[in-house]
Design a protein that fits this description.
By secondary structure, this protein is of the alpha+beta class. The strands form 3 sheets. A 5-stranded antiparallel β-sheet has the order 5-4-7-10-11, with no helix packed on it. Helix 2 (23-33) crosses helix 6 (84-94), helix 5 runs antiparallel to helix 6 and helix 8 (154-170) packs antiparallel against helix 10. It is built from 10 helices and 11 strands. It comes from hydrothermal vent metagenome. InterPro entries: Bact_Cytoskel_RodZ, Cro/C1-type_HTH, Lambda_DNA-bd_dom_sf, RodZ-like_C.
Amino acid sequence: MSNTTSNSAVSNEVNELLQQKSFGTSLKLARKKSEVTYDQVAENLLLSIEMIKAIENSQVNVLPSAAYTKGYLRNYARLLGLPEDEIINDYLRRVPNTEPKVELVPKTAEIINDDKKLGRDQITKFVSSTAIISVLIVFVFWMFNSDDEQVPELIDVQKDLLIQDSKALTSGVNIESNGAIKNAGLKPAETKTNAALNNMGVVKKTVTVDTATLNDSQVKSSVALAESVNQPSNLLKYQMVLTATGESWCEIKDSTGKRLCFRLLTNGVTKTMTGVPPFNIFLGDARVVSIELNGKLIGHESSIPKYSKFVRINIDKDGEITLAPKRKK
């Protein structure tokens, strides 16, 4: 009696499903006829039971996008031996077309003019930016590759001061009968001369005049003698040559604060510069850079920290190396 009741219930459910005629109905009916459980379907299709029920109930609003759902329906139909395309087509008829419609609207004259103006503005900005960048590149290149042989006009200043003071000296010289030169009220001029010489670091030489007359030629000789005085050692320039066998950042300044090098040295690059020692040198990878000072190879390798590549050192005019203090931030 119970079997008859169960068969009757299944028959009634099957009839109801046939009347619905949806893509999920065919799948559900085939599953029940094959006596396949939800768990078995879920295991084969790698889907959740909730998703399988949504497919069988044709719940389009619950199912994912059409691309995924078509794949699920195709696999489910293959599992139950049903025609795949028929079920998928039935599903597509029930899915609302959610793709947005693209409406082509012709551009008005105002929109076209705005587009042209925008294009011109973009071109103007691009040209301006390119010009600014080019100027900056040229300026930086000029700064770091300027002539290292530029010498301050200190010599010309010294000449002018010495000529002026020599003329002032001659205006106060009296020659005695025995040929000796007597200073008559020369303190202001002498003070000015001494101050000028001291400021320039020039060592004065004593000039003895044996003639009874101090003429213009003798004044010029005195000036020439003063000009021939050796300049202080810190004004003498030395040539430094860096040769790279790899990549290393390099920063070099001389004692006057002039930047001689501020660039990346690459393999095979040789950088020649002149400056006033001592030199302050920073090398990012000191082991790939060799240093020569006036043709003398400087062995700086021993100054490189054991577990580091970079080094900051000072090199004096004799090629002696000392570690430079770290920069204060």
